[in-house]
Amino acid sequence: MKAARPKLSLVVLVLAGMAAFALAGHIAATRFIRDQQTRQLDELTEVVLRRSEFAVDFATASLDELASRGLATCAPASLQAIRLHVYQRSAVKDVRLVNSDGSVICSAYSETLEFDKGWVDRADMLASRDSKLMLFRVEQFGGDALGVLRDIGDDKALVAILGINSSLFDIMPAELRAHGEVLLALKNGAQLGEFALDADKTLAHPIDFEKSSARYPLRAVIRIDRSVLSTWNSDVYWPAMAVALALGALFGVLLSRTRRMEGPVADLDRALARGEFKPYFQPIFDLHTGEIRGCEILARWLREDGTVVPPMNFIPLAESSGRIEAMTWQLLGRALADLQPHLKADKDFKLSFNVVPKHMLGAGFVETLRSTVAAARVSARQIVLEVTERDELDDLARAAAVVGELRDYGFRVAIDDVGVGHSGLSRLKGLGANTIKIDKFFVDTITVDASTTTIVEMLVALARDFHMTVVAEGVETEEQVRALISCGVEEGQGYLVAAPLPFAKFSELMVSRRAASAAAAPARDSALVA
Q1: Span 467-486, mean pLDDT?
Q2: Which N-terminal stretch is annotated as signal sequence (predicted)?
Q3: Which residues make Cβ contacts (< 8 Å) with residue 13, sequence separation at least 6?
Q4: Domains of the chain (ranges plus CATH)?
């Protein structure tokens, strides 16, 4: 009987643990699914708003260029030059010269005036954060357009007419497409564009996800029928419950033991002390020739047992715990040691590494970077710092000063994840970076979505105006390469050439590429002679 009591106690503890963990698992899984749905729909709403902001950025840059060329007149030669400008920028449908009150003086394509159902006075236009820029809806018989007014002097202004293509907003996941709609409107409620599979269908129990622009009077809304959220992305529920029950049973078994449990931060500290974080190298290549022009180093955690931990499993914790700075310097030092012979042999080769904004703006960052690179006997102009646009730069003036100091010393700065982050391109220009990296989100759809092509073309055009170079991330197919080249992108990065590789394999890749290029050279020379 006495022997049976410990077993009975163990069973009770196991059942109690399973019941407690099952309840906690249900609450946690339900909350997690709801939070995931909210986060994903918030991100999709943010993407709609960013796409719209890019369209306005593009129109504004176009108007500024026309004004700088002295084309803000109705002279035939000026109108001809404006028509050529509009032809080269498909997103802009017309450019009009207007009086200070907003009334039209002349239009590059005067026939488009016939499609206007009305034209608003300046008093009805909406101001932007830039006091010389105003937005308004242009009601036309073929569908509404967006007017972007840019003041030129005190007595006149230029207006770009942007066609709002509903396909720009076709971003809904397949499961939600028939149960939701995407809207773009001005802050006064004037609707500019809408995407819905069935425009006549009314959502029974709608829930709205809304984002407003801080720079322009624009508002993006995703409206979803609440009932569909009960089944969307809920596959994790039952696996989570199974895990909760298993953990509950394990917890019951371990209740009788006392064991010192160390947290994951302690694991990071031990890994840093042992040097377990290793740089993996992913090539950055010329889209036209395939030549490797540089690489980005990406963190991998190689445990003592040989397992490789992907960055998503430790980078967020490293950032939140403050270990990311020590990890960044450790990775950079190791990468410089590995790649130093190649960097010295090829002065045009670039080594890129990621740095979070908080680290870059921290005390002593520039001095530590200079000493680290100098110790490796590598040229500063071969080092590129990638600052992600997903993390907001709270102090743009301070960031611009640090970037200016880095560039004075020869370093280059790239803005990562452009197109899905916090900054408009006008802010990116203010930061003073050398390069923008187009997020994989756009590369994935560039061959199947015409609206993505338009956005990439706008990014390239604006980057060219800001004297920046462009790199496309996540390139995986030759079809994507051709589409990117047609948009004007010069360089790419992605699995088409190679996944992130340990240095030994990356070195083998560069050797094999050079050998293949050398073998192909005589054939090219013979063809040229012939």
Answers
A1: 94
A2: 1-24
A3: 252, 253, 255, 256
A4: 1-255 (3.30.450.20), 266-529 (3.20.20.450)
